[in-house]
Amino acid sequence: MLKLENIYFSYGIDEILNDFTMSVENDELIAILGPNGVGKSTLIDLINGSLKPNIGNIFLDDYDLNCLNASERSKLVSTVPQTNSIPGEMLTSELVLMGRNPHLKLLQWEDANDYKIVEESMRSTGILDLANRPINSLSGGELQRSLIAMSLCQQTPIILLDEPTSNLDIANQNKIMHLILNIQKQRSCIVIMTMHDLNLASQFCDRIIMLHKGKNFSEGTPQMIMTKENILQVYGTNVEVLNLNWQESPVIVTRRNQDST
Q1: Can you list the positions of beta strands (E) in the chain?
Q2: For residue 202, is it within any domain?
Q3: pTM greater than 0.85
């Protein structure tokens, strides 16, 4: 179980998270929702150790993640970032191989087992044929799958994804979400994603957590959380929530006239 207890975090005088608490069981796919600037990416950085909370604790079972060094933490938590600064001339296979770095000792080279894990990760994400392609030649969807493959190579019980479908067309959004869902089911790991697309979150995720004013405003299944009242309070937007016969999860439709009630 991953537990965040009474997390406070601020950038200087700008408070981002205020007494934020959540717990995630193993084998859950979680979406973190909320408007821009509410602290979704900050939450990802706190879990992966890029940031430290001002107050509060983060535990994975008996491990206090705040007390682990970067190498120890990267064996437990992997992150697929929203943006990257990867050199464009790097080959896709070289990028994926970087996921093995936490498992290597100082001056240790990769061995046959590491390359086997790389091959398996690339095959499971459908990018084996891109192994010798430079990063700057990949499409947005191909790059996202490559970053996910790198994360899989870390073999961590927690995978974090920051806006995994941003800037992708509808076909690639669907492919990436099905890929993430399949990975979570096959590996029985914890997957936590920040998202803007309410309908993708509703369709694919086991549980949704809405961030509002630095707190865990509401959490539960999509059927519980995706209500007109919650969305109006968190996003300040009037929507219609539809329950279609062929769709188990609710569908959110924005109103053309936002002044209507």
Answers
A1: 2-11, 14-24, 29-33, 55-60, 63-64, 77-80, 158-162, 190-194, 207-212, 215-220, 239-242, 251-254
A2: no
A3: yes
**Tens digit of pLDDT for each residue in 194-227?**
999 999 999 999 999 999 999 999 999 999 999 9
Residue 153 has which token pair? Answer: 């190579």
Assess if residue 76 is contained within a domain.
no
CA dihedral 48, 51, 53, 57 (to 10 degrees): 20
- 136 is in which domain, residue-wise? 85-155
| 3-state SS assignment for residue 152 | helix
Establish if 125 belongs to a structural domain.
yes
Structural domains in the chain (count) = 1
Beta strands in 104-245 (DSSP E): 158-162, 190-194, 207-212, 215-220, 239-242
